[in-house]
Amino acid sequence: MTLSHASQVSSRSCLAIVLGAGEGTRMKSAKPKVLHQVANRSMLGHVLATLTQAGATSTAVVVGPDREDVAREVQKISAEARIFVQTDRLGTAHAVLSAREALAQPVDDVIIAFGDTPLILPETFTKLRAPLAEGAAVVAMGFEAKDPTGYGRFITSGKELLAIREHRDASEAERAITLCNGGLMAIRGDLALTLLDRVENNNAKGEYYLTDIVEIARSLGHRTAIAVVSEEEVHGVNDRAQLAAAERMIQDRLRQAAMASGVTLIAPETVFFSHDTRLGQDVVVEPHVVFGPGVVVEEAAVIHSFSHLEGARIASGAGVGPFARLRPGAMIGPKAKVGNFVEIKNTDLGAGAKVSHLTYLGDASVGAEANIGAGTITCNYDGFNKHRTEIGEGAFIGSNSSLVAPITIGKGAFVGSGSVITDNIPNNALGLGRGRQTVKEGWAIEFREKAQAAKKK
After folding, report:
1. With contact defined as beta carbons under 8 Å apart, do 367 and 391 qualify?
2. Strand (E) or helix (H) holding 7
3. Which of the residues are catalytic?
4. What kind and span of H or E run contains 255?
């Protein structure tokens, strides 16, 4: 598609209708199919976000009856989208007509998308619309299938699309065709209702097929067109195996994009991203790292192996892991260190601060260059409420210490190893909170003799 074509498309209004009413029985799930996630975003969420990027000026989503959960997801991703209910599932054309009220509004283009095809790219929607700007009435998205079984076939004459034949209605000769229907369609806005209202259910399943509008448009003297894309993009999800395949494909995309932007992935196939993961230039990610939603890693930081991050921000030059867990609200400062078996939640770790191993920091603030010893925990929860721990710049927290919040450890202060600290410690002071050690010479000999004697009785 040329730049001029893209420019033509961008100047046109577009209604996107997303079909999300399918029950997804093959998923074997109480959750609606379109709410199953890839890269930590629902499939429906991916489609809605992509349509927005592609320039849809209005959106309608068709959901099944009593599917408030799907409606909530729509509102979360696209607050302006209108929701329509398909009460009876009588085919794809019937589903589209559930949004009749939206279709009745004047618009240049109408896109029909599916809530279970999360891999479509924004530029593909633009490619689908381009022939409408050149006079086509209907544009169907097709792909060359490795195995066409089960797909609708494109019946063509030269470059002309004559019809789309569903697999079960196709002849043997038509089933040999490998150019298949990807499902998505674009329709000229002023013709959409005219074409859809003429669809009948004279087929093996007795359903109203959206694909029939190709023949209907041609019978009325209008031109139809094809937009060919890769098979991967139109990958639909009907079961758990196809969901896993979609996850694999989107992860491959995210890994390639990360490396192209200047990120080193030592073993890319072992790293898993969220759809919104942001990594700066010269970041290094070692094997077996998982990024949950909402993670930002700034330039030259290193994420070591077997770490799990979610809702966290890691500043430039910081190191995380191995075997670290960063939970939502973790803010790791420049050149700070989070070591092995450390869990951090809702905590600011200052520049150059070190939490090297075996530690839990929750609801805390740690000043620059502070050192948190092994086995330290912030006791932030009293059974009802969370409380904060404030640790000053350059403070030193000895190993195996419990800091009972709310509490403040001053700048440059020391906490003796093994302490339970319940009161604030001023700047540059030493805090100790442990029992005094007692040594009894020869006690072990006497104890063993008594124990052995008792055992003989």
Report:
1. yes
2. helix 3-10
3. 357
4. helix 240-260
Tens digits of residue pLDDT in 347-397: 999 999 999 999 999 999 999 999 999 999 999 999 999 999 999 999 999
Tokens of 347: 């905590």
How much is the pLDDT for 89?
87
Tens digits of residue pLDDT in 432-443: 999 888 999 999
Q: What is the dihedral of CA 133, 135, 139, 142, to 10 degrees?
A: -90
> What's the pLDDT tens digit per position in 162-206?
999 988 889 999 999 999 999 999 999 999 999 999 999 988 888
Among candidate residues 115, 111, 116, the one with its CA nearest the CA of residue 141: 111
Peptide bond into 65 cis (omega under 30): no
Task: Give me the torsion for CA of 58, 63, 66, 69, rounded to 10°.
Answer: -70
Q: Which residues pair with 277 in a beta bridge?
A: none
Give me 57's structure tokens: 């000026």
Cα dihedral value 307, 313, 315, 320, nearest 10: -10
Q: What is the DSSP string of 59-110?
A: EEEEE-TT-HHHHHHHHHH-TT-EEEE-SS---HHHHHHTTHHHHTS--SEE
Is 285 strand, coil or helix? strand
139-153 in b/e burial notation, b at 16+ Cβ within 10 A? bbbbbebeebeebbb
Task: Write the DSSP string, 321-362.
Answer: -SS-EE-TT-EEPTT-EEEEEEEEEEEEE-TT-EEEEEEEEE
Report in angstroms the alpha-carbon separations of 41 from 151, 279, 425. 27, 18, 45
